[in-house]
């Protein structure tokens, strides 16, 4: 793997890949047996891509095709329908991902695997204080259904499934045969600064694509300890810290509420509104939360992601609030691994009002 800001040399990739693939099968079983609640958000857009490949060989090939199109109107018509896909991160709506790509903080992979006429290219990976972001391109010889590969990749850390995680998946339609996707992985708990990330993607017709790559967390991350706590209408909230880097800002927190049913718990629906000392709001990105039962309580942990802060920001006002679901449901697994569909039960949940608090940003 080529990393844009630091080359990882002498890495035994072939041996590690073999071990990762062997371990992924076991990890998938762990994922099925995991009692953790996963929440994914799906967003889709038909906006055309504006990026260009950076590889000169591709640019030359495209130039030859354009030259040929002057002699072939039919070819010119076909070319006009071909999407030009450059960096998926650079073309995203996330300021942090654009910044990461611009400053060379992403790991550029570019590995492609093809199964049953469907090619999946692992484009780039970013590992920062907010978690792991992965971009990939899905291209098919035939018309491709939306969300043909579900809600993204399963993953392993050094060959093992994490104890709990949350995240989001965004997919864009580039053409009838091409999709681009960005997946965010938030792993709760201590994470090593570098590790081997194993990835597995499934298609609707049983296709499987495997990837494994060494990744490293970016440097120059500032962490501001907060430890702000409040309890409102039975919902306990503890905001642990805030982390800031060139690629974004994140708020780490833990919340809890008495109960037995995750679908009826409001503690997992907490979001934050963040404004600077001038009243300018910092754009946030809704993400999932990891939940587990602890005695008579449902306990959630998460890192909420926001855009990078400008250099003039000296103070933030943070206001927690509930983003209550309007629909939903899911799948529940029992101790035997048997699944059961869960219908939406959150329509009766009532909002609450949390107190705002301020955080000084060190220079």
Automatic annotation (TrEMBL):
Keyword terms, alphabetized: Membrane, Transmembrane, Transmembrane helix
Domain DUF5643: 222-333
Residue stretches spanning the membrane: 51-70
Domain DUF4179 as annotated: residue spans: 47-140
The protein, known as: DUF4179 domain-containing protein
């Amino acid at each position: 793997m080529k990393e844009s800001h630091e080359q990882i040399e002498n890495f035994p990739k072939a041996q590690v890949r073999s071990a990762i693939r062997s371990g992924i099968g076991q990890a998938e079983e762990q994922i099925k047996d995991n009692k953790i609640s996963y929440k994914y958000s799906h967003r889709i857009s038909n906006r055309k891509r504006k990026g260009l490949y950076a590889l000169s060989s591709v640019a030359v090939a495209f130039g030859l095709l354009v030259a040929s199109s002057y002699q072939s109107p039919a070819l010119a018509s076909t070319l006009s329908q071909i999407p030009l896909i450059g960096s998926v991160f650079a073309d995203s709506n996330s300021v942090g991902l654009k910044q990461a790509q611009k400053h060379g903080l992403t790991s550029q992979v570019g590995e492609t695997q093809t199964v049953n006429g469907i090619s999946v290219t692992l484009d780039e990976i970013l590992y920062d204080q907010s978690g792991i972001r992965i971009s990939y391109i899905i291209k098919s010889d035939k018309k491709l259904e939306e969300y043909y590969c579900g809600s993204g990749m399963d993953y392993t850390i050094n060959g093992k499934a994490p104890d709990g995680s949350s995240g989001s998946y965004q997919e864009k339609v580039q053409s009838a045969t091409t999709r681009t996707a960005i997946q965010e992985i938030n792993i709760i708990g201590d994470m090593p600064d570098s590790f081997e990330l194993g990835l597995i993607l499934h298609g609707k017709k049983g296709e499987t694509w495997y990837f494994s790559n060494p990744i490293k967390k970016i440097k120059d991350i500032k962490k501001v300890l907060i430890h702000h706590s409040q309890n409102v209408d039975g919902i306990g909230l503890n905001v642990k810290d805030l982390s800031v880097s060139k690629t974004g800002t994140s708020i780490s927190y833990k919340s809890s509420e008495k109960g037995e049913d995750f679908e009826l718990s409001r503690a997992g629906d907490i979001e934050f509104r963040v404004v600077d000392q001038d009243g300018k709001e910092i754009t946030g990105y809704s993400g999932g939360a990891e939940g587990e039962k602890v005695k008579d309580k449902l306990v959630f942990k998460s890192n909420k992601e926001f855009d990078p802060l400008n250099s003039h920001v000296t103070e933030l006002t943070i206001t927690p609030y509930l983003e209550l679901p309007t629909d939903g449901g899911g799948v529940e697994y029992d101790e035997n691994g048997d699944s059961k569909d869960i219908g939406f039960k959150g329509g009766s949940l009532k909002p609450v009002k949390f107190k705002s608090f301020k955080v000084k940003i060190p220079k």
